[in-house]
Design brief:
By secondary structure, the chain is α+β, with helices and mostly antiparallel strands. It has four helices and eight strands, in the order E-E-E-H-H-E-E-E-H-E-H-E. It has one domain (about 25-190): Aminopeptidase (3-Layer(aba) Sandwich), CATH 3.40.630.30. About 25% of the residues lie in helices and about 30% in strands.
Length: about 200
């Protein structure tokens, strides 16, 4: 069992879109399980110990815009072979940093260097009367992969979701051919959903 003893100032989010243009199934985790705990008076950033690294995780701010844009460019090229429009991408990332209702980015740092990111967006569930958080735009620098960086980010997501109190689960999309990512998500307690994703791309 793994537990993260941490508490942070709740981030209150209004309902925002949870839209992805990446094909694939999605996984989900129930935050009501006893897999994680929370409970101290620390504030962000949070230090997470891994077998080889001590990683700080913090919420991104306006000063992180260039790095976030760079990571998104690299991620799109590597995972989907897409060359993103730099101007549109920068506007999209900046919108998240400026508008609380769109979500928030988390960054993982090692010795002051940003080595990974993820984006959280929200979906309101009328059935649950609570939010689902969607993990998107995951990227870790190649030289820091399989060293606990994503695990540190994911631990922060769970702790913050539990602290907020109105988040019923965490979901993410994963390409069906990305077996390494699927193994990582399973190892962290996520399970495949029985839903399939259908999409209507209005900007083709």
């Amino acid at each position: 069992m793994v537990s993260l003893m941490v508490s942070m100032r709740p981030l209150r989010l209004r309902s925002g879109q949870a839209l992805t243009l990446c094909p694939g199934a999605y996984s989900t985790i129930n935050l009501r399980s006893s897999y994680w705990q929370s409970g101290s008076n620390q504030e962000s950033p949070v230090a997470v110990d891994t077998p080889s690294l001590r990683i700080n995780v913090r919420q991104a701010g306006p000063q992180d815009l260039p790095r976030l844009v760079q990571f998104n460019v690299s991620m799109a090229q590597e995972t989907e072979g897409k060359a993103l429009d730099p101007a549109r991408l920068q506007q999209g990332v900046a919108a998240v940093l400026q508008r609380q209702d769109l979500g928030f980015y988390l960054l993982a740092e090692l010795e002051g260097q940003v080595v990974g990111q993820l984006l959280i967006t929200t979906e309101w569930s009328d059935w649950r009367n609570a939010f689902f958080w969607w993990v998107q735009s995951v990227y870790v620098l190649p030289q820091f992969r399989r060293r606990g960086v994503y695990r540190a980010l994911e631990q922060r997501v769970r702790a913050q979701a539990l602290e907020q109190g109105n988040v019923c689960g965490v979901r993410l999309y994963v390409d069906r051919d990305n077996l390494i990512a699927q193994q990582t998500y399973r190892a962290l307690g996520m399970s495949p959903s029985h839903y399939d994703l259908y999409e209507l791309d209005l900007w083709q």
